[in-house]
Every structure is written in C-alpha cells, then in structure tokens.
Amino acid sequence: MEKPISSEEIYQDILSRIISLELEPGSKISENMISDKYGVSRSVVRNAFARLMQDCFLTVYPQRGTYINYIDLDYIRTALLIRTSIEKEMLYRFMKKSDKSNIVAKMKENILKQEKFYSANEYLEEFRKLDEEFHEFIIVSVENKNILNLISQHLLHISRWRNLYIKKLGCTVSHLIDEHKLIVECIESGDLEKALDCMSRHIETVSSEMNIDSEFKHYFSSSY
C-alpha cells in the first residue's frame, strides 16, 4: 500500500509550481481541484494552503475563491535590498576569516554542478537550490541558520521574479554562474572591496531589469 501524500509534499509541489510560473500569478486554485489531483482529503490540502498564505503566495477572497498572488515589485525591490545588506555583511565577516579554503572549495564544487545549466533558459528548481546553497556556504560559515530563516520567504519571492526574468524575457542563467565565479575569484585574491561590489551587483542583477513587458503585465499588482 502506497504511503499517502503528506501536506508537506503538497505544499512543496504547489510552491515549486508557483515559483516556476506553471501556476501563473492571478490564477485561481481550489481545495477541491488539489484534493482530486493528489487523492487526499481537503483538510490535508487546507494545511498546505495555510502555509502558502503565510508565505504570501495565496489569498482567499470571500465568495470568490483562492488565487495565486500577483508579483509585487515594491516587495521584490525591498527584499533585494534586505538580502544585499545581509549578504554583504556576511561576506565582510567571511573575508576576515584566516582560513577560508574549506568553504571556497565547497563553493567551487557547487559551481561545477551549476555548469550543466549554463545555457538554460529557465530558473529550474535544481539550479535554484544550487544558487541558494552557494550563498548559504558563506552565511552559515560566519553565522547560525537564524539568518537564513529570516530571509527564506524573501528568497522564494525573489526566485519567482528571477524565473520570470530568465524564463519569460529570453535570458539565460549563464550570467548568474559567471557572477558566482567572479565572487570566488575575488575571495581567493583577498580583494575585499571588489568582493563586496561583486556580491552587490550579483544580487541586484534582476533589480535593474524591472521594466515590465506588456505581455506579462497581468502577472503584477495592478499598480504596475
């Protein structure tokens, strides 16, 4: 007998589909539809929906239903600002460490895994995890994981925007990989100022590309 699908598994699957834009911003989603798809009770789906609402990806409108939230560019800009400030501080502390060789080796190994996505025109889930892991190596080496917990929700929303930037606007992930390589080069050379500048430019890559093509205006909050 197969093990029933858990609320956690449903949450992760729907979250992945939202971030990948398979479930488009503004589209309707229902407990009945998801419970039928996975063959589970509505209470199991309701728990997954509750988490997605906490993550600000779903909103329930009385008498209308449940909808995927639109992308809010003001939120994305703020999230990028917060992430840039935190990661530059973490990188500054990391650069002051006497022995960085073990972490640098892990970052290089991570980049090698990223290479197979060099020509990808989608911000695929596997690459997203490698991208986040690359940054986590520095953060965890100088701080505990509380920092990651604080910015985890921001990272998910940034990932959805980044997926639009890559998947829908005809870009590739190659420039992200090249920026990762440059960050490692700066760390190895001991150039603190350049390393901080590279990290800032890397995180803010997509913030400079926030001109919305008319084809995708329906993905965004009405104010845009």
UniProtKB/TrEMBL annotation:
Q: Which Pfam families match?
A: FCD, GntR
Q: Which UniProt keywords apply?
A: DNA-binding, Transcription, Transcription regulation
Keyword match Transcription: yes
Instruction: Name the domain of life.
Output: Bacteria
Q: Cite the GO molecular-function annotations of the record.
A: DNA binding; DNA-binding transcription factor activity
**Which part of the chain is the HTH gntR-type domain?**
4-71
Protein name as annotated:
DNA-binding transcriptional regulator, GntR family
Q: Which organism is it from?
A: Peptostreptococcus russellii
